[in-house]
User: Fold this.
Amino acid sequence: MNGVDVYVLRLGHRAERDKRISTHVALTARAFGAKGIFFDVFDRNLFESVEDVVSRWGGDFFIRHIHSWRSLVKNFEGKTVHLTMYGMPLTEKMEELKKCERILVTVGAEKVPPEIYEISDYNISIGTQPHSEVAALAVFLDRILNGEVFRKEFENARTRIIPSNRGKKIC
Amino acid sequence: MNGVDVYVLRLGHRAERDKRISTHVALTARAFGAKGIFFDVFDRNLFESVEDVVSRWGGDFFIRHIHSWRSLVKNFEGKTVHLTMYGMPLTEKMEELKKCERILVTVGAEKVPPEIYEISDYNISIGTQPHSEVAALAVFLDRILNGEVFRKEFENARTRIIPSNRGKKIC
Assistant:
């Protein structure tokens, strides 16, 4: 098991445009082993749909609205990472990051305030090509938490999947 | 370098609803080292926006509309993988898959025809929790292609990023 507690900050969510991408970001955070996700924008539908997944599929992942992302980042007890295609390759910073006890990882929507580059401890890239904050977060968590997505158990789940070669097995 | 050539099939794209998720799927495929992506639905805006990224950021990634996904999967020369939360964990099939020379990996939108479970050589899961086809594809490619996203060079790029600790450096 890996000892790092990871939290996610979704920055700059726009309710109409980012609804589905932000849902994917939140569910990826949960499935890959993050403790919870903060949004600087409140979006009732999105929050309810993530909370609905938690209540059906188990575990204690949280989704929370915060009023100041700056104070969250600045006052976070641990290291803060901003995922951006402009940052340093994750592979170069893995050793340092794996020593952390708590990480807050920020994934922005299309435009982020420039200040996030300044106040984060690390700006980290998953490749330097345009792709997806969902992909970047997944690979960051997969590597930092050593494949926790393949091991994590979710308590009090009402639905569980039994892996199978064909079709769908649920219990 | 890894010798596997990977192609992606995006199944069941719905132009309005999936526009942004499918764009993320396509750009993730490109950035993480797949050769190209097939869609069973033609969506001019989406195709043009992916082709625009290719022309600015380089490389020879293709996006192509096919009329029959069944015949693509059935006649593919290589192994076919369907990514689904109901499948067998990737970790259990890694050794087999890494021996392949060519892989076609299918990522479905919300509902996929049950037939895809039957005609694919493998049904593979990246965890058994609901999350994101973008996340699943990213981790599949990252692991199968051994972190190609951190190494891949794109020829004839008009834009390139120089990784940096702070801010944005472009050349």
In short: The radius of gyration of chain B is 16 Å. The first strand of chain B starts at residue 5 and ends at 11.
